[in-house]
Amino acid sequence: MIETLNIKGTEDSPEVIMDFQKGFIRISGTSWLEDAYSFYEPLYQWVSEYFKAPQKVTEIEFGYTYFNTSSAKQIAKLVTLISNFKSRSEVKVKWFYENGDSEMLKSGKKYSELLDLSFEFVEIESTSESEDEDEGVYKIVHK
């Protein structure tokens, strides 16, 4: 059986939670990686294994605050891989973006349009302004 994948975020890399039992994937934070492929490769492997026998519903949350060009390519590869398996599970994708971050919203919309996955776009308050922020909790501004 596939295990849960947890990667703690750093200043340059996103936090990753991939939970087989819950059918849940969350990638959030900054992805400013020089070698983005090496970071994302275990995520591709996990997704490929997961979709061999996925949960009926798979919930995916992207909550990037920033990503560089090399990360953008790997994110596209990951979303494409997920899109290829969407017939095996009902895939629900939420793309969180900080209020006023039109570039991140635009990036999410590009992934949604290019890869034939339906995204829900959720505006959140800026995480950098909150001192008592709860890990993994988004404060939704409006949908």
Strand portion, in percent?
A: 25-35%
The CATH topology name reads Transcription Regulator spoIIAA
Secondary-structure-derived class: alpha/beta
Distance between the termini: 36 Å
Strands of the widest sheet, in order across it, are 1-2-3-4-5-6-7
Can you describe this structure?
The protein is α/β, with parallel strands linked by helices and 143 residues long. The protein has three helices and seven strands; from the N terminus they run βββαβαβαββ. Strands 1-2-3-4-5-6-7 form a seven-stranded mixed beta sheet, with helices on one face. Helix 1 runs parallel beside helix 2. The longest helix has 16 residues, at 69-84. The protein is globular, with a radius of gyration of 14 Å. Mean pLDDT is 89; it is low at 129-135.
Q: Which SSEs are present, and which pair or pack?
A:
Blueprint: E1 5-7, E2 15-19, E3 24-31, H1 36-50, E4 57-67, H2 69-84, E5 90-98, H3 102-114, E6 119-124, E7 140-142
Parallel strand pairs: 3-4, 4-5, 5-6
Antiparallel strand pairs: 1-2, 2-3, 6-7
Question: Which terms would index this structure?
Answer:
143 residues, alpha/beta, Transcription Regulator spoIIAA, seven-stranded mixed sheet, 3 helices, 7 strands, 31% helix, 31% strand, globular
Summarize the structure.
This protein has 143 residues and is α/β, with parallel strands linked by helices. Helices cover 31% and strands 31% of the residues.
